[in-house]
Protein backbone atom coordinates (compact mmCIF):
# COMPACT_ATOMS: atom_id res chain seq x y z
CA UNK A 1 0.00 0.00 0.00
CA UNK A 2 2.76 2.41 0.85
CA UNK A 3 5.29 1.54 -1.78
CA UNK A 4 5.69 5.10 -2.94
CA UNK A 5 7.89 5.84 -0.02
CA UNK A 6 11.55 5.79 -0.91
CA UNK A 7 13.17 6.88 2.32
CA UNK A 8 16.39 5.58 3.73
CA UNK A 9 16.32 4.17 7.22
CA UNK A 10 20.06 3.95 7.56
CA UNK A 11 21.30 5.65 10.66
CA UNK A 12 17.84 6.13 12.05
CA UNK A 13 18.36 6.22 15.77
CA UNK A 14 15.18 7.83 17.03
CA UNK A 15 16.78 11.17 17.63
CA UNK A 16 14.24 13.65 18.81
CA UNK A 17 15.00 16.95 17.24
CA UNK A 18 13.14 19.95 18.42
CA UNK A 19 11.62 22.06 15.78
CA UNK A 20 13.08 25.52 15.71
CA UNK A 21 10.26 27.88 14.80
CA UNK A 22 12.87 30.40 13.71
CA UNK A 23 13.78 28.21 10.76
CA UNK A 24 12.25 28.91 7.39
CA UNK A 25 9.05 26.94 6.94
CA UNK A 26 10.50 24.58 4.37
CA UNK A 27 13.11 23.36 6.85
CA UNK A 28 10.70 23.10 9.74
CA UNK A 29 8.74 20.55 7.84
CA UNK A 30 11.68 18.48 6.81
CA UNK A 31 11.54 16.37 9.93
CA UNK A 32 9.33 13.33 10.28
CA UNK A 33 5.84 14.16 11.51
CA UNK A 34 5.75 10.96 13.55
CA UNK A 35 9.17 10.83 15.21
CA UNK A 36 10.88 14.18 14.37
CA UNK A 37 13.76 12.37 12.72
CA UNK A 38 15.66 14.19 10.00
CA UNK A 39 16.00 13.85 7.11
CA UNK A 40 12.48 12.94 6.09
CA UNK A 41 10.78 12.63 2.74
CA UNK A 42 7.75 14.44 1.50
CA UNK A 43 4.74 12.13 1.28
CA UNK A 44 4.38 11.54 -2.41
CA UNK A 45 0.61 11.29 -2.23
CA UNK A 46 -0.29 14.58 -0.59
CA UNK A 47 3.03 16.48 -0.60
CA UNK A 48 1.87 17.98 2.70
CA UNK A 49 3.57 15.83 5.31
CA UNK A 50 7.07 14.35 5.91
CA UNK A 51 7.99 10.83 6.96
CA UNK A 52 11.43 9.45 7.72
CA UNK A 53 10.58 5.84 7.01
CA UNK A 54 7.98 3.44 5.78
CA UNK A 55 7.28 2.47 9.39
CA UNK A 56 6.46 6.02 10.37
CA UNK A 57 4.29 6.48 7.30
CA UNK A 58 2.42 3.30 8.10
CA UNK A 59 1.85 4.26 11.69
CA UNK A 60 0.12 7.44 10.50
CA UNK A 61 -1.80 5.70 7.75
CA UNK A 62 -5.08 4.91 9.53
CA UNK A 63 -5.59 8.65 10.03
CA UNK A 64 -3.82 9.96 6.94
CA UNK A 65 -5.96 7.90 4.59
CA UNK A 66 -9.08 9.68 5.81
CA UNK A 67 -8.00 12.98 4.30
CA UNK A 68 -5.18 12.79 1.81
CA UNK A 69 -7.35 12.40 -1.29
CA UNK A 70 -9.71 15.11 -0.15
CA UNK A 71 -6.65 17.25 0.48
CA UNK A 72 -5.19 16.73 -3.00
CA UNK A 73 -8.46 17.12 -4.86
CA UNK A 74 -10.12 19.64 -2.66
CA UNK A 75 -13.40 20.69 -4.19
CA UNK A 76 -14.49 23.32 -4.87
CA UNK A 77 -11.18 25.05 -5.64
CA UNK A 78 -10.16 27.94 -3.41
CA UNK A 79 -12.95 30.49 -3.82
CA UNK A 80 -10.68 33.49 -3.16
CA UNK A 81 -7.22 34.29 -1.78
CA UNK A 82 -8.91 35.16 1.50
CA UNK A 83 -10.14 31.59 1.87
CA UNK A 84 -7.85 29.38 3.93
CA UNK A 85 -7.74 25.62 4.04
CA UNK A 86 -9.17 24.16 7.26
CA UNK A 87 -10.28 20.78 8.55
CA UNK A 88 -13.84 20.24 9.64
CA UNK A 89 -14.61 17.48 12.14
CA UNK A 90 -18.35 17.10 11.67
CA UNK A 91 -20.29 15.92 14.71
CA UNK A 92 -22.68 13.61 12.89
CA UNK A 93 -20.41 11.95 10.34
CA UNK A 94 -17.34 9.76 10.74
CA UNK A 95 -15.38 11.50 8.00
CA UNK A 96 -13.35 14.65 8.58
CA UNK A 97 -13.40 17.07 5.63
CA UNK A 98 -11.21 19.70 4.02
CA UNK A 99 -13.01 23.02 3.84
CA UNK A 100 -12.30 26.62 2.88
CA UNK A 101 -12.89 29.25 5.53
CA UNK A 102 -13.22 32.89 4.60
CA UNK A 103 -10.68 34.85 6.65
CA UNK A 104 -11.14 38.57 6.30
CA UNK A 105 -8.28 40.81 7.21
CA UNK A 106 -9.34 43.47 9.62
CA UNK A 107 -7.34 46.53 10.61
CA UNK A 108 -7.79 47.91 14.05
CA UNK A 109 -8.57 51.60 13.48
CA UNK A 110 -6.78 52.63 16.68
CA UNK A 111 -3.38 50.98 16.42
CA UNK A 112 -3.37 49.83 12.81
CA UNK A 113 -2.71 46.21 13.82
CA UNK A 114 -4.27 43.68 11.50
CA UNK A 115 -5.82 40.33 12.31
CA UNK A 116 -8.07 37.85 10.52
CA UNK A 117 -11.69 37.25 11.27
CA UNK A 118 -12.80 33.76 10.28
CA UNK A 119 -16.34 33.14 9.17
CA UNK A 120 -17.36 29.85 10.71
CA UNK A 121 -21.11 30.22 10.60
CA UNK A 122 -22.99 27.89 10.12
CA UNK A 123 -20.35 25.16 10.56
CA UNK A 124 -20.67 24.97 14.35
CA UNK A 125 -24.44 25.02 14.44
CA UNK A 126 -27.36 26.93 12.93
CA UNK A 127 -27.85 28.81 16.20
CA UNK A 128 -24.64 30.81 15.69
CA UNK A 129 -23.14 29.77 19.06
CA UNK A 130 -20.37 31.43 21.02
CA UNK A 131 -17.12 29.97 19.74
CA UNK A 132 -14.31 28.84 21.98
CA UNK A 133 -10.75 28.39 20.73
CA UNK A 134 -7.99 26.09 21.97
CA UNK A 135 -4.55 26.81 20.57
CA UNK A 136 -2.17 23.94 19.96
CA UNK A 137 1.41 25.21 19.91
CA UNK A 138 3.07 22.04 21.07
CA UNK A 139 2.54 18.41 20.25
CA UNK A 140 3.04 16.61 23.55
CA UNK A 141 3.05 13.13 22.05
CA UNK A 142 5.87 13.86 19.61
CA UNK A 143 7.68 16.44 21.73
CA UNK A 144 7.38 18.93 18.95
CA UNK A 145 7.04 22.68 19.16
CA UNK A 146 4.97 24.20 16.37
CA UNK A 147 5.42 27.76 17.50
CA UNK A 148 5.00 30.17 20.34
CA UNK A 149 3.52 33.54 20.98
CA UNK A 150 -0.23 33.06 21.18
CA UNK A 151 -0.10 33.85 24.87
CA UNK A 152 0.39 37.58 25.34
CA UNK A 153 3.20 37.02 27.82
CA UNK A 154 5.15 34.66 25.55
CA UNK A 155 8.52 36.25 24.95
CA UNK A 156 9.25 34.48 21.71
CA UNK A 157 6.90 35.06 18.83
CA UNK A 158 7.48 32.48 16.14
CA UNK A 159 5.99 29.64 14.20
CA UNK A 160 2.30 28.96 14.25
CA UNK A 161 -0.47 27.31 16.19
CA UNK A 162 -3.43 25.17 15.32
CA UNK A 163 -6.64 26.80 16.49
CA UNK A 164 -9.38 24.35 17.41
CA UNK A 165 -12.69 26.13 17.26
CA UNK A 166 -15.83 24.68 18.79
CA UNK A 167 -19.08 25.59 20.54
CA UNK A 168 -18.11 27.20 23.81
CA UNK A 169 -20.81 25.43 25.79
CA UNK A 170 -20.72 22.08 24.05
CA UNK A 171 -20.56 20.17 27.28
CA UNK A 172 -23.82 21.64 28.52
CA UNK A 173 -25.91 22.56 25.51
CA UNK A 174 -26.24 19.04 24.34
CA UNK A 175 -24.98 18.40 20.80
CA UNK A 176 -23.94 14.84 20.11
CA UNK A 177 -20.43 13.52 20.73
CA UNK A 178 -18.25 14.28 17.74
CA UNK A 179 -18.15 11.14 15.62
CA UNK A 180 -15.44 12.19 13.18
CA UNK A 181 -12.98 12.96 16.00
CA UNK A 182 -13.53 9.52 17.48
CA UNK A 183 -13.20 7.87 14.07
CA UNK A 184 -10.07 9.82 13.11
CA UNK A 185 -8.29 8.73 16.26
CA UNK A 186 -8.25 5.24 14.84
CA UNK A 187 -9.04 3.38 18.03
CA UNK A 188 -12.45 3.37 19.66
CA UNK A 189 -12.30 5.07 23.02
CA UNK A 190 -8.87 6.57 22.41
CA UNK A 191 -10.01 10.19 22.75
CA UNK A 192 -10.22 10.84 26.48
CA UNK A 193 -12.04 14.16 26.43
CA UNK A 194 -15.64 14.25 25.29
CA UNK A 195 -15.87 16.60 22.31
CA UNK A 196 -19.43 17.39 21.24
CA UNK A 197 -20.70 19.28 18.25
CA UNK A 198 -18.61 20.03 15.20
CA UNK A 199 -15.02 21.23 15.53
CA UNK A 200 -12.96 23.23 13.02
CA UNK A 201 -9.15 23.09 13.00
CA UNK A 202 -7.41 26.11 11.48
CA UNK A 203 -3.82 27.19 11.33
CA UNK A 204 -2.90 30.61 12.63
CA UNK A 205 0.22 32.66 13.22
CA UNK A 206 0.74 34.15 16.65
CA UNK A 207 -0.47 37.46 15.21
CA UNK A 208 -3.80 35.87 14.26
CA UNK A 209 -3.31 35.58 10.54
CA UNK A 210 -4.74 32.36 9.20
CA UNK A 211 -2.80 30.02 6.92
CA UNK A 212 -3.62 26.77 5.13
CA UNK A 213 -3.73 23.60 7.24
CA UNK A 214 -1.39 20.81 6.14
CA UNK A 215 -1.81 17.10 6.69
CA UNK A 216 1.06 17.27 9.20
CA UNK A 217 -1.21 19.65 11.11
CA UNK A 218 -3.93 17.01 10.93
CA UNK A 219 -1.56 14.65 12.77
CA UNK A 220 -0.74 17.31 15.37
CA UNK A 221 -4.46 17.97 15.85
CA UNK A 222 -5.18 14.28 16.38
CA UNK A 223 -2.29 13.99 18.82
CA UNK A 224 -3.72 16.89 20.79
CA UNK A 225 -7.14 15.25 20.85
CA UNK A 226 -5.59 11.94 21.89
CA UNK A 227 -3.61 13.45 24.73
CA UNK A 228 -5.89 16.20 26.01
CA UNK A 229 -7.33 15.31 29.39
CA UNK A 230 -5.64 11.96 29.72
CA UNK A 231 -3.86 10.56 32.72
CA UNK A 232 -3.32 7.27 31.01
CA UNK A 233 -0.06 5.47 30.40
CA UNK A 234 0.38 2.69 27.90
CA UNK A 235 2.17 -0.54 28.59
CA UNK A 236 5.68 -0.19 27.31
CA UNK A 237 6.92 -2.64 24.71
CA UNK A 238 10.31 -1.04 24.94
CA UNK A 239 11.57 -3.38 27.61
CA UNK A 240 13.08 -5.90 25.23
CA UNK A 241 14.76 -3.77 22.60
CA UNK A 242 15.70 -5.69 19.51
CA UNK A 243 18.68 -4.05 17.90
CA UNK A 244 17.89 -5.33 14.42
CA UNK A 245 14.49 -3.69 14.30
CA UNK A 246 13.60 -0.15 15.25
CA UNK A 247 11.83 -0.97 18.50
CA UNK A 248 12.02 2.66 19.40
CA UNK A 249 9.39 3.28 16.75
CA UNK A 250 6.71 2.00 19.03
CA UNK A 251 7.66 4.31 21.81
CA UNK A 252 6.30 7.84 21.65
CA UNK A 253 9.13 10.38 21.49
CA UNK A 254 9.79 12.08 24.80
CA UNK A 255 8.03 9.36 26.75
CA UNK A 256 9.93 7.93 29.68
CA UNK A 257 9.65 4.50 31.18
CA UNK A 258 7.68 4.26 34.38
CA UNK A 259 6.40 1.28 36.27
CA UNK A 260 2.84 0.57 37.28
CA UNK A 261 2.56 -1.26 40.59
CA UNK A 262 -0.60 -3.29 40.12
CA UNK A 263 -3.08 -3.30 42.96
CA UNK A 264 -4.48 -6.56 44.22
CA UNK A 265 -7.65 -6.20 42.10
CA UNK A 266 -5.67 -5.55 38.93
CA UNK A 267 -3.67 -8.72 39.46
CA UNK A 268 -6.73 -10.78 40.39
CA UNK A 269 -9.02 -9.45 37.67
CA UNK A 270 -6.61 -9.11 34.77
CA UNK A 271 -3.85 -11.40 35.83
CA UNK A 272 -1.46 -8.45 35.56
CA UNK A 273 2.09 -8.67 36.73
CA UNK A 274 2.88 -6.98 39.98
CA UNK A 275 5.20 -4.57 38.16
CA UNK A 276 4.35 -3.45 34.63
CA UNK A 277 6.60 -1.23 32.50
CA UNK A 278 4.64 1.68 31.04
CA UNK A 279 5.40 4.61 28.75
CA UNK A 280 4.77 7.90 30.50
CA UNK A 281 4.20 10.71 28.01
CA UNK A 282 5.42 14.28 28.59
CA UNK A 283 1.89 15.55 29.17
CA UNK A 284 1.27 13.09 32.01
CA UNK A 285 0.49 14.89 35.30
CA UNK A 286 3.62 13.45 36.93
CA UNK A 287 5.75 15.26 34.35
CA UNK A 288 4.01 18.56 33.73
CA UNK A 289 4.59 21.77 35.68
CA UNK A 290 3.67 21.30 39.34
CA UNK A 291 4.19 17.54 39.04
CA UNK A 292 1.44 15.42 40.59
CA UNK A 293 2.20 12.69 43.06
CA UNK A 294 4.54 12.29 46.02
CA UNK A 295 8.18 11.37 46.43
CA UNK A 296 8.91 8.14 48.27
CA UNK A 297 11.05 9.02 51.33
CA UNK A 298 12.85 5.66 51.20
CA UNK A 299 13.81 6.22 47.56
CA UNK A 300 15.51 9.49 48.50
CA UNK A 301 17.77 7.61 50.89
CA UNK A 302 18.49 5.12 48.14
CA UNK A 303 19.70 8.00 46.02
CA UNK A 304 17.06 7.75 43.31
CA UNK A 305 13.98 9.83 44.18
CA UNK A 306 10.84 8.11 42.91
CA UNK A 307 7.55 9.86 42.33
CA UNK A 308 4.40 7.87 43.05
CA UNK A 309 1.04 8.69 41.51
CA UNK A 310 -2.34 7.08 42.08
CA UNK A 311 -4.19 6.33 38.89
CA UNK A 312 -7.51 8.16 39.06
CA UNK A 313 -9.65 5.12 38.21
CA UNK A 314 -9.77 3.98 41.82
CA UNK A 315 -13.59 3.73 41.91
CA UNK A 316 -13.32 0.72 39.67
CA UNK A 317 -11.52 -1.14 42.42
CA UNK A 318 -13.55 0.04 45.34
CA UNK A 319 -16.94 -0.97 44.01
CA UNK A 320 -16.62 -4.12 42.01
CA UNK A 321 -20.06 -5.70 42.24
CA UNK A 322 -20.06 -9.21 43.56
CA UNK A 323 -16.57 -9.00 44.99
CA UNK A 324 -15.92 -9.93 48.53
CA UNK A 325 -15.43 -6.57 50.18
CA UNK A 326 -12.88 -8.03 52.56
CA UNK A 327 -10.46 -8.60 49.71
CA UNK A 328 -9.61 -4.94 49.23
CA UNK A 329 -9.08 -5.01 45.48
CA UNK A 330 -7.52 -1.55 45.68
CA UNK A 331 -4.89 -2.72 48.13
CA UNK A 332 -1.35 -1.91 47.00
CA UNK A 333 1.07 -2.68 49.79
CA UNK A 334 4.24 -2.16 47.79
CA UNK A 335 3.22 1.40 47.03
CA UNK A 336 2.23 2.05 50.63
CA UNK A 337 5.55 0.72 51.92
CA UNK A 338 7.48 2.97 49.55
CA UNK A 339 5.72 5.93 51.11
CA UNK A 340 6.66 5.12 54.72
CA UNK A 341 7.87 8.08 56.74
CA UNK A 342 11.63 8.06 57.38
CA UNK A 343 11.91 11.17 59.50
CA UNK A 344 13.25 9.81 62.79
CA UNK A 345 11.70 12.68 64.74
CA UNK A 346 8.23 12.24 63.28
CA UNK A 347 5.43 10.55 65.17
CA UNK A 348 4.46 8.86 61.91
CA UNK A 349 7.86 7.17 61.57
CA UNK A 350 7.39 3.93 59.65
CA UNK A 351 3.86 4.78 58.55
CA UNK A 352 2.62 5.91 55.16
CA UNK A 353 0.48 9.04 55.26
CA UNK A 354 -3.26 8.37 55.10
CA UNK A 355 -3.45 9.24 51.40
CA UNK A 356 -0.92 6.49 50.69
CA UNK A 357 -2.46 4.02 53.07
CA UNK A 358 -6.02 3.88 51.80
CA UNK A 359 -7.73 3.55 48.43
CA UNK A 360 -4.57 3.09 46.47
CA UNK A 361 -5.50 1.11 43.38
CA UNK A 362 -2.84 0.98 40.69
CA UNK A 363 0.09 3.27 41.32
CA UNK A 364 2.48 4.71 38.78
CA UNK A 365 6.14 5.14 39.73
CA UNK A 366 8.51 7.35 37.76
CA UNK A 367 12.01 8.53 38.42
CA UNK A 368 11.84 12.15 39.45
CA UNK A 369 14.95 12.94 37.43
CA UNK A 370 13.04 12.10 34.23
CA UNK A 371 15.10 9.03 33.38
CA UNK A 372 13.77 5.58 32.62
CA UNK A 373 12.89 3.43 35.60
CA UNK A 374 13.84 -0.20 35.19
CA UNK A 375 10.99 -2.52 36.08
CA UNK A 376 13.28 -5.12 37.66
CA UNK A 377 15.06 -2.50 39.70
CA UNK A 378 11.79 -1.25 41.16
CA UNK A 379 10.84 -4.84 41.91
CA UNK A 380 14.13 -5.25 43.78
CA UNK A 381 13.54 -2.05 45.75
CA UNK A 382 10.09 -3.24 46.80
CA UNK A 383 11.45 -6.63 47.90
CA UNK A 384 14.24 -4.89 49.76
CA UNK A 385 11.69 -2.76 51.57
CA UNK A 386 9.49 -5.73 52.50
CA UNK A 387 12.15 -8.20 53.47
CA UNK A 388 14.88 -6.03 54.96
CA UNK A 389 13.43 -2.70 55.96
CA UNK A 390 10.00 -3.65 57.29
CA UNK A 391 11.35 -5.95 60.00
CA UNK A 392 13.83 -3.25 60.97
CA UNK A 393 11.12 -0.60 61.19
CA UNK A 394 9.17 -2.96 63.45
CA UNK A 395 12.21 -3.61 65.61
CA UNK A 396 12.76 0.12 65.99
CA UNK A 397 9.24 0.30 67.39
CA UNK A 398 10.04 -2.29 70.02
CA UNK A 399 8.70 -5.36 68.25
CA UNK A 400 10.72 -8.51 67.61
CA UNK A 401 13.75 -9.83 69.39
CA UNK A 402 16.27 -7.20 68.29
CA UNK A 403 16.33 -3.71 69.66
CA UNK A 404 17.14 -1.05 67.12
CA UNK A 405 17.19 2.68 67.04
CA UNK A 406 15.49 4.60 64.26
CA UNK A 407 18.86 6.01 63.34
CA UNK A 408 20.22 2.52 62.73
CA UNK A 409 17.31 1.77 60.42
CA UNK A 410 17.84 4.99 58.53
CA UNK A 411 21.54 4.34 58.12
CA UNK A 412 20.76 0.97 56.62
CA UNK A 413 18.70 2.48 53.77
CA UNK A 414 21.50 2.94 51.27
CA UNK A 415 22.06 2.13 47.61
CA UNK A 416 24.93 -0.15 48.71
CA UNK A 417 22.73 -2.27 50.94
CA UNK A 418 20.14 -2.46 48.19
CA UNK A 419 22.81 -3.79 45.80
CA UNK A 420 24.00 -6.33 48.35
CA UNK A 421 20.41 -7.46 48.80
CA UNK A 422 19.97 -7.79 45.03
CA UNK A 423 23.09 -9.95 44.79
CA UNK A 424 21.87 -12.23 47.55
CA UNK A 425 18.51 -12.58 45.84
CA UNK A 426 20.09 -13.70 42.61
CA UNK A 427 20.02 -17.41 42.13
CA UNK A 428 17.29 -18.00 44.66
CA UNK A 429 14.57 -16.42 42.59
CA UNK A 430 11.88 -19.03 43.11
CA UNK A 431 12.23 -19.19 46.82
CA UNK A 432 12.26 -15.47 47.27
CA UNK A 433 9.17 -15.07 45.12
CA UNK A 434 7.04 -17.60 46.93
CA UNK A 435 8.17 -16.08 50.16
CA UNK A 436 7.22 -12.72 48.77
CA UNK A 437 3.77 -13.85 47.67
CA UNK A 438 3.02 -15.19 51.14
CA UNK A 439 2.59 -11.69 52.37
CA UNK A 440 -0.65 -11.62 50.36
CA UNK A 441 -2.22 -13.27 53.39
CA UNK A 442 -2.20 -9.92 55.07
CA UNK A 443 -4.15 -8.33 52.27
CA UNK A 444 -7.37 -9.82 53.61
ZN1 LIG B 1 9.84 8.97 11.54
ZN1 LIG C 1 0.45 12.17 2.42
What would you say this structure looks like, in words?
With 444 residues, this protein is α+β, with helices and mostly antiparallel strands. 25% of the residues lie in helices and 19% in strands. It has helices at 25-28, 54-64, 68-72, 179-184, 215-227, 264-270, 297-301, 315-318, 333-338, 375-396, 406-412, 415-425, 429-438, and strands spanning 41-42, 50-51, 83-89, 97-107, 114-118, 131-136, 138-139, 144-145, 147-148, 158-167, 199-205, 210-211, 234-235, 256-261, 275-280, 294-295, 306-310, 363-367. The strands form four sheets. Strands 3, 4, 5, 6, 9, 10, 11 and 12 form an eight-stranded antiparallel sheet that branches. Strands 13-15-14-18-17-16 form a six-stranded antiparallel sheet. A hairpin with a 4-residue loop joins β7 (138-139) and β8 (144-145). The radius of gyration is 26 Å and the shape is elongated. It starts with 24 loop residues before the first helix and ends in a 6-residue tail after the last helix. One zinc ion is lined by residues 43, 45-46, 48-49, 64, 68, 215.
What's the Cα radius of gyration? 26 Å
Strand content: 15-25%
The percent of residues in helical segments reads 25-40%
Give the helix/strand class: alpha+beta
Number of helices: 13
**Tertiary shape:** elongated
Q: Which regions are unreliable across 5 or more consecutive residues at pLDDT < 50?
A: 1-23, 238-249, 430-444
Distance between the amino and carboxyl termini: 55 Å
* Largest sheet report: 8 strands, antiparallel
Write out the distinct hetero groups bound to the structure. Answer: zinc ion
Mean pLDDT: 80
Strand runs, count: 18
Amino acid sequence: MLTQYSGNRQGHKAKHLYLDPALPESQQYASCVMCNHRPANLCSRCRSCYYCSKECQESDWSSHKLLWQKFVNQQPPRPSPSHKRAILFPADDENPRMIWVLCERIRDPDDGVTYDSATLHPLLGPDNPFIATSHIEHNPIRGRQLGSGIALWARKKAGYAIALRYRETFLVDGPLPNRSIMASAGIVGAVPHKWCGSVVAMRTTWSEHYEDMTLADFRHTLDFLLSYGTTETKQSNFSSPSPSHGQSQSRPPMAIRGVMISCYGERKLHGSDRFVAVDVPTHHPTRTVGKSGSISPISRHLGMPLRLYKYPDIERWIDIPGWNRNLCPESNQDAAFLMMETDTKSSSWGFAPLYWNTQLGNVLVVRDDGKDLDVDHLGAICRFVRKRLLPMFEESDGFGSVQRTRKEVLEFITADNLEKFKEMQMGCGDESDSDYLDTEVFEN
